[in-house]
Write a structure and sequence with these properties.
This protein is of the alpha/beta class. The chain has 22 helices and 9 strands.
C-alpha cells in the first residue's frame, strides 16, 4: 500500500470508531450495533481499512496487546471482597455453570452444523463464553432493571471477561499442544504456557504493587506506569510463548484489585478513555476483516448456534444458577435473557483463528466469521428486546426518585420527612452519633457504613440512588463529596450553597452548577431561619406560593424529584407536590 492509502485507512478507522460510538450514544443503543456494521461495510467497500494490508504481520500482535489492556482494566474491577451477600451464590454459579454448559453445548453443536473439527469447535465455544461489561452495562443502563438484577448481571459481566480470557488462552494452548506429536510433550507445552502467563502476571503485579504503594506518583504517571507494565509483561510473555500475555494481563489486574495496602482510584479517566478507543478501533478493524465471502456458508449455521445459546443454553444456566435461592422466577427469566457477546469474543477470535488455521486445525477459518455473526445477532436481539421483556416480566426499577440526604441536622431530618410524605423512598446518612440517633428516632432509613467507602465502586449504599443532597454543616465536605460522588451515582449530586463570605478551602471555588435552592438560601441562612421557627412542609400545587413560603422541591405525580437551583425554579402544575420552607 502507498503512504496515502495508509493515511486514508488509519484515519478512516479512527473516524469510524469514534463516530460510531458517538452515534450510538445519541441513539442510546450499544455501540456494537453501530461499530460492527460500520467496519463490515467499510471493509466491503474499500481495501484501505483492511488491517491485514495496513499493518501486515503486526496486526495480530497489536490486537493481542490491546486485548491485554482491556482485560487488565476489567481485572482491576474484580475486588472479590465486594462479591458478597445473597447474590454471591448466583454469580458464582453463573460463571462456572455458564462456562461449562456454553462450552459443551456450543462445541457439540458446532462440530456437525459448522463442519468444524473438535478442536476448532471447542475453541469457538470457549470464545463464546465471554459477555463483558462493555456490552451489558449500556444495555442495563437503558433498561434499568431492579437493583438485584443490575448487581447480578454487572458482576457476571465484569467477571466473565477475564475468566473467559484466561479460559480461552488456556484452551488455545491446549489445542496447539494437542496438535503436536506426543501427548507428553504437548501437555508439557500446555503447562509451560499456563505457568509462564500466571508467573509473569504475578511478578508484574508484585512490581506494580511495590511501585504504586511506596512511590508517590501523580494520577497521570501512575496510569502510565500501569500501562507500560501491562504492555511490557504481555509483550514479553507473547514473545516467549504465543498469547500467554492475555493470562498475565488478567492476573495482574485481579491481583492488584485484591492485594492489601493498595488503594487504586475508582475512576481512571485515561484508562477508561483508552479502553473505549481501543474497543472502537478493534471492532472496526476486526469486522473489516470479515468479508462477505467468508460469511456465505457460515451465516445460517451461526444463527442456528445463536438460537441454541439464546433459547436453550442461557435460560438453563440462569435457572440452575438461581436454584434454591430467593431469586424469583421472573428475575431468573430476565437473567436468562441477557447474555450478549462483546469485544473480548471478537478480539480473541481474531487472535486465535488465524493462528489455529496456520497450524492446519480443520474449521479454524470459520471461527472469526461465526463469532462475528453471534456477536451481531445477540447484541441486536438483546438490544431490541431487553426493555420490553423486562417490562413484560415486571422487573423494571420503579421510576420514582430515591434521594440520599447526607446530614442529620434537625432541618435536614424535617426535609427528609417531607420528601417521604410526598411518596419518595428516602435514605439518609450522617457521620455523628447524635445525628444518626436523630434520624433513627424520626423513623427514617439510615444508610449503613462509611459514605466515601460506599462510593468506591460497587457499594450497596449508593445502588439505586437517583439524587444525592449534601446537607451537612461543613461546606468543604459538601463540596468535596459532590465531586467524589458524581462518579458513583446515576443521577444528580447537589449541595448547599456556602455563605457568601465563606473562607473555606474548597467550597467557594468548587463551582455553582450543583448548588441547591435559590441563591439567597445558603446553608447558614437555612439554619438561621429554622432556628427562628421556619419549618419544611408539603402541599399540593394548587396555586402559587404564599407570602413566607419558599419552594425547595417539586415532586411530580410519577414520583420524580425536581429541585430548585440557583436561578431555576421548576414550574409546578396541578398534581405536583410542593416541598416548602415556611416562615414561623
Amino acid at each position: 500500500m502507498s503512504a496515502d492509502q495508509v493515511y486514508v485507512g488509519l484515519g478512516l478507522i479512527a473516524v469510524l470508531a469514534v463516530g460510531s460510538q458517538l452515534l450510538a450514544s445519541r441513539l442510546r443503543v450499544p455501540a456494537l450495533l453501530v461499530l460492527l456494521p460500520a467496519g463490515f461495510t467499510a471493509g466491503a467497500l474499500t481495501d484501505n481499512v483492511d488491517p491485514q494490508r495496513l499493518l501486515g504481520s503486526s496486526f495480530s500482535p497489536l490486537v493481542s496487546l490491546a486485548v491485554a489492556v482491556i482485560l487488565y482494566d476489567a481485572g482491576l474491577g474484580l475486588d472479590l471482597r465486594r462479591l458478597k451477600g445473597h447474590n454471591r451464590r448466583v454469580v458464582i454459579r453463573l460463571l462456572w455453570l455458564g462456562a461449562l454448559l456454553t462450552v459443551v453445548s456450543a462445541a457439540l453443536f458446532a462440530v456437525p452444523v459448522l463442519d468444524m473439527s473438535a478442536q476448532a469447535a471447542v475453541m469457538l465455544a470457549t470464545i463464546l463464553v465471554v459477555s463483558g461489561p462493555t456490552v451489558v452495562g449500556p444495555l442495563l443502563a437503558f433498561v434499568r432493571p431492579t437493583e438485584r438484577l443490575q448487581r447480578i448481571l454487572v458482576w457476571e459481566g465484569s467477571l466473565i471477561d477475564p475468566v473467559g480470557g484466561i479460559l480461552g488462552a488456556l484452551v488455545f494452548h491446549g489445542v496447539l499442544a494437542g496438535s503436536r506429536p506426543g501427548f507428553g510433550s504437548g501437555f508439557g507445552h500446555f503447562l509451560a504456557s499456563a505457568a509462564l502467563g500466571l508467573g509473569a502476571g504475578a511478578a508484574g503485579a508484585g512490581v506494580l504493587w511495590m511501585v504504586l504503594g511506596r512511590v508517590r506518583l501523580s494520577e497521570e504517571l501512575a496510569t502510565s506506569v500501569q500501562l507500560a507494565a501491562v504492555i511490557g509483561v504481555a509483550a514479553a510473555c507473547d514473545a516467549l510463548r504465543d498469547d500467554t500475555g492475555l493470562i498475565s494481563a488478567v492476573v495482574m489486574g485481579m491481583a492488584l484489585a485484591n492485594l492489601p495496602g493498595l488503594e487504586l482510584p475508582t475512576r481512571r479517566p485515561f484508562f477508561e478513555t483508552l479502553v473505549s478507543l481501543i474497543i472502537g478501533l478493534l471492532f472496526v478493524s476486526i469486522s473489516a476483516t470479515v468479508t462477505p465471502e467468508s460469511l456465505r456458508h457460515v451465516v445460517l449455521p451461526s444463527l442456528a448456534l445463536t438460537a441454541l445459546l439464546v433459547l436453550v443454553t442461557r435460560p438453563l444456566i440462569a435457572h440452575l444458577a438461581a436454584a434454591r435461592t430467593d431469586v424469583p422466577a421472573r428475575e431468573r427469566w430476565f437473567v436468562g435473557w441477557m447474555a450478549p457477546r462483546g469485544i473480548v469474543a471478537a478480539a480473541t477470535a481474531s487472535t486465535f483463528s488465524a493462528e489455529l488455521a496456520a497450524h492446519h486445525i480443520a474449521g479454524a477459518e470459520r471461527i472469526l466469521p461465526a463469532t462475528f455473526v453471534v456477536i451481531v445477532a445477540t447484541v441486536m436481539l438483546y438490544g431490541l428486546t431487553a426493555f420490553p421483556v423486562a417490562r413484560r416480566l415486571g422487573v423494571l426499577r420503579p421510576s420514582r426518585s430515591r434521594p440520599l440526604l447526607v446530614g442529620g441536622a434537625p432541618w435536614a431530618v424535617d426535609l427528609a420527612r417531607a420528601l417521604s410524605a410526598a411518596g419518595l423512598d428516602v435514605l439518609m446518612w450522617a457521620g455523628a452519633g447524635e445525628e444518626r440517633a436523630r434520624i433513627e428516632a424520626a423513623g427514617l432509613e439510615l444508610a449503613p457504613g462509611e459514605l466515601m467507602a460506599s462510593a468506591e465502586g460497587f457499594g450497596a449504599v449508593l445502588e439505586g440512588i437517583t439524587d444525592v443532597l449534601l446537607l451537612t454543616g461543613e461546606d468543604d465536605f459538601n463540596a468535596l463529596a459532590s465531586l467524589k460522588l458524581r462518579e458513583s451515582v446515576e443521577g444528580t449530586v447537589r449541595r448547599l450553597a456556602p455563605s457568601a463570605a465563606s473562607e473555606g478551602v474548597v467550597a467557594p471555588y468548587a463551582g455553582g452548577e450543583s448548588l441547591l435552592f435559590d441563591a439567597s438560601l445558603t446553608r447558614p441562612e437555612i439554619v438561621r431561619r429554622y432556628e427562628a421557627g421556619a419549618r419544611v412542609v408539603t402541599r399540593t400545587a394548587d396555586g402559587p406560593p404564599a407570602d413566607g413560603e419558599q419552594v425547595l422541591f417539586v415532586v411530580r405525580p410519577e414520583g420524580r424529584l425536581v429541585p430548585v437551583t440557583a436561578g431555576v425554579c421548576p414550574e409546578a402544575v396541578p398534581g405536583d407536590t410542593l416541598v416548602l420552607l415556611t416562615e414561623a
